[in-house]
Amino acid sequence: MFTSDSNLVFNPPIQSTTIEALAGNDTLVIIGSGSQDNIIYGESKDELSGAVVADDDRLIVVGSDNNNNIIVGDAANLINNARGGDDLLFIKGDNSDHNKIFGDAEISLSKSSGGDDLLVVFGNDSNDNNIYGDAPLLENNSFGGDDRLEVFGSNNTNNTVSADGILRNSQGGSDSVIIEGDGNNNNTIYGEGEEIENSIAGNDSITIAGEGNIVYGDALKMIGNSQAGNDTLTGSGGVNTFYGDALDLGTSTGGKDTFVVSGGFSDQDGSDGEYNIFKDFRSGEDIIGLAGGITFDDLTFGVNADTTIVSIANTNDVLAWVENTVEGDITILGTDDFILV
Question: Is residue 13's pLDDT more than 80?
Answer without folding.
Answer: no
